[in-house]
Automatic annotation (TrEMBL):
One of its GO terms (biological process) is methylation. It catalyses: a 2-methoxy-6-(all-trans-polyprenyl)benzene-1,4-diol + S-adenosyl-L-methionine = a 5-methoxy-2-methyl-3-(all-trans-polyprenyl)benzene-1,4-diol + S-adenosyl-L-homocysteine + H(+); a 2-demethylmenaquinol + S-adenosyl-L-methionine = a menaquinol + S-adenosyl-L-homocysteine + H(+). S-adenosyl-L-methionine binds at residues 74, 94, 122-123, 139. It comes from Pelagimonas phthalicica. Keywords: Menaquinone biosynthesis, Methyltransferase, S-adenosyl-L-methionine, Transferase, Ubiquinone, Ubiquinone biosynthesis. Its EC number is 2.1.1.163, 2.1.1.201. It is an enzyme of class 2 (transferase). This is Ubiquinone/menaquinone biosynthesis C-methyltransferase UbiE. One of its GO terms (molecular function) is 2-methoxy-6-polyprenyl-1,4-benzoquinol methyltransferase activity. NCBIfam families: MenG_MenH_UbiE, PRK00216.1-3, PRK00216.1-5. Pathway: Quinol/quinone metabolism; menaquinone biosynthesis; menaquinol from 1,4-dihydroxy-2-naphthoate: step 2/2; Cofactor biosynthesis; ubiquinone biosynthesis.
Amino acid sequence: MTETSDKTTHFGFTNVPEHEKAGKVQGVFTSVASKYDVMNDAMSMGIHRIWKDAMMDWLAPRPGQRLLDVAGGTGDISFRFLERAGEGHSTVLDLTESMLVEGRKRAEAAAMSESLDWVVGDAMALPFADNTFDVYTISFGIRNVTRPQEALNEAYRVLKPGGRLMVLEFSQIPNDMMQKAYDLYSFNVIPRMGQAIAGDRDSYQYLVESIRKFPDQETFLSMVRTAGFENAKYRNLTMGIACLHSGWKI
Ligand SMILES: C[S@@+](CC[C@H](N)C(=O)[O-])C[C@H]1O[C@@H](n2cnc3c(N)ncnc32)[C@H](O)[C@@H]1O
């Protein structure tokens, strides 16, 4: 007999049993996969590219490094990492197969398939041995994970000693006026754009709600430290709309 916990968690602004969240998240990303890259550019007016480049600037990839790009989706972070490193390898892991399918198409078009592996899996239970990777990234992924602390613990486990964690995620704007303006945009415009471009309003409603449920910069920093990471720091991007957290496994 399978035991299921009666604990609940948030799925956007709705409360759901914990064991149902991953399936719902998978539903969202299966639905948007083929339009995901186009929607990212439209919703953020291209700014997500600047944030991802800022992630690479801080990460400073080096030749020969082995990256694990969790919740890697269509591969934006892995492609950037490999281009900056010159040579290296990336394993893209994601819960949603359709997102990886889109990523694989991009890798083939860019003749980068040999440097990439695509793995379906859950950030909370990584199918890799301890001390395997030089770098672990998760970009706009961890807020969708049912228990983010477990994902951070897993990141620590699979990194080699000396390995680096880098998280890119939406965060909280430490200015009420700016936060209100941003909320007006995200709650009114993004779901409508989702309907117009991807034919899916509900998935984009979930995405904006999930941003508001994610912990603020300091709370997330303490979670990174709890997982065991040292020299943990963060940098706000665009006034805190997004944020980078970095930590080292010493
Ligand atoms: C917003 S997309 C981010 C994709 C890519 N990293 C980027 O920055 O463009 C979020 C991704 O997280 C994946 N995801 C959500 N929960 C996950 C989990 N528990 N484990 C692995 N991937 C997960 C989704 O399937 C989706 O592809």
